Amino acid sequence: MQSDYKVRYLHDDIIAAAAESCWRHAPPERPHTFDVIKLLEVLVTAGIDHVFHIKGDRKKGPLEIEFFDRRRRWQWERPAWVTFDKKVKLVVDSAIWEAATLGKTFASFVLAHEAGHILLHDSSAKAFSSSKSDQLSFVDEGESAEEQANSFAGHLLVPTRTVHRFPDKDLLAAVCNVPDELAADRLAAVSNAKAILAQHRMTDYCRGCGRFTEVALGICQSCTHDQLQPTS
Asked: Rounded to an integer, what distance in angstroms lies between the CA atom of residue 57 and that of residue 111?
């Protein structure tokens, strides 16, 4: 079982904002299919903080990438991982990198997941047991590094706006070029969020226009901004 780490809690809005920033700094050629290889190359050339930086965190600088051949090592070894020493380094199996370059869905998800660690985490992560019972007793909800990285990968590869446009699992998987399971998970997550917002009308500050206004079904009645979408 892959090891996990205890990290600070991050609201889903922050994770979604990090993914949205990646779309702005590494816009893909295909409108709904994110190019994670292009993103990683931007993190190398322009720097991690250029793409996303949480205020108050230490600057991370440019990403380093180190390749290895998993076929010449233990087969059970992870296909990719991130280290946080003096510099942030992505260590990745050459075959995974090549597969992601070719648009293979599993490889793209693996690298999107690691990009989540690169952008959201640092060396302050605390190791904890991978035992399910230990996780439940020791780690509060939202403090798992792996859960946060998975959530980031979902937002990155299947943005909420794309789910709204293609609310069908098979179609969503096709246009985003992602595994069926990820498409189903994102569809369920967005549908659940919409259902919660639809239960009542509320008066709050709109994340789009900033006005104190009535929001119904997650939509601001003043500027029509969707409250589930990150602000630009």
From this structure: 23
End-to-end CA distance of the chain, in Å?
38
Q: Residue 72: left if φ>0, alpha if ψ -120 to 50, beta else—which one? A: alpha
* Residues 152, 59: Cα–Cα separation, whole Å: 20
Q: Write the CA distances from 199 to 52, 194, 195, 196, 218, integer angstroms.
A: 34, 9, 7, 6, 10
User: Residue 86 burial (CB < 10 Å; 0-12/13-18/19+)?
Assistant: exposed
* Of 101, 110, 119, 116, residue with least CA distance to 48: 119
| pLDDT higher than threshold 80 for residue 73 | no
Give yes or no for a contact between 48 and 63, defined as CB atoms under 8 angstroms apart: yes
Asked if the model's pLDDT at residue 62 lies above 60, the reply is yes
Tokens 């699992």 found at: 169
Strand partners of residue 165? none
Distance CA 166, CA 187 (A): 9
Q: What predicted TM-score, i.e. pTM, was given to this entire model? A: 0.80
Residue 91 DSSP one-character state: E
- 42 or 55, greater pLDDT: 42
Q: Give the pLDDT confidence score for residue 86 in this predicted structure.
A: 87
77-113: per-residue pLDDT in tens?
789 999 998 899 999 999 999 999 999 999 999 999 9
